[in-house]
């Protein structure tokens, strides 16, 4: 499959085939009030692009919607746990300075924060660290627990959730990444054990993977 810029007649042909298919090239030409030879190249292009399927002695059938359904089915089958990355996490007592160093070394936009039991307790972003750095305090002594966004105000995702839902959370909350967590119930309370990270980078990798499956020349 490859990308094409559809012209007005391409759209007209697609609408006819969707409505009347299977339909022969002679019938399509008749409905357009032109000769069959005039639409031969259009039909070839639409067939090569995967939008139409030509069957001998049957005619043309529309398959564009089938391709979209394949993509939808593929996305719905993928779970966050299939794509999650290694989490980057530190204790609440870690200094802001050490968090800044770690963020640059790991090349991430946010860091997850855990308590002494290693359950998720918060998250810090580049903006949080920048504010702390220019705020006049001693970032070598200041713990990240002071500046982090605390639970339950941290948006999380479970490994079993669809990647589409995780992507929607990232968009709606305008955040860099989501902690992938398992819920731990203990003494009537729920705790969150970090098992991964799902970020915009994971979404980009998935997009490229879909493109490769459908035809890498989309990106050429």
Automatic annotation (TrEMBL):
Residues 83-139, 148-214 form the CBS domain. Residues 6-67 form the HTH deoR-type domain. GO terms for molecular function: DNA-binding transcription factor activity. SMART domains: CBS (SM00116). PROSITE patterns: CBS, HTH_DEOR_2. CDD domains: CBS_pair_CcpN (cd04617). Gene3D superfamilies: CBS-domain (3.10.580.10), Winged helix-like DNA-binding domain superfamily/Winged helix DNA-binding domain (1.10.10.10). Keywords: CBS domain, Repeat, Transcription, Transcription regulation. Coiled coil: none annotated. PANTHER family: CBS DOMAIN-CONTAINING PROTEIN CBSX2, CHLOROPLASTIC (PTHR48108), TRANSCRIPTIONAL REPRESSOR CCPN (PTHR48108:SF32). This is CBS domain-containing protein. It comes from Acidaminobacter hydrogenoformans DSM 2784.
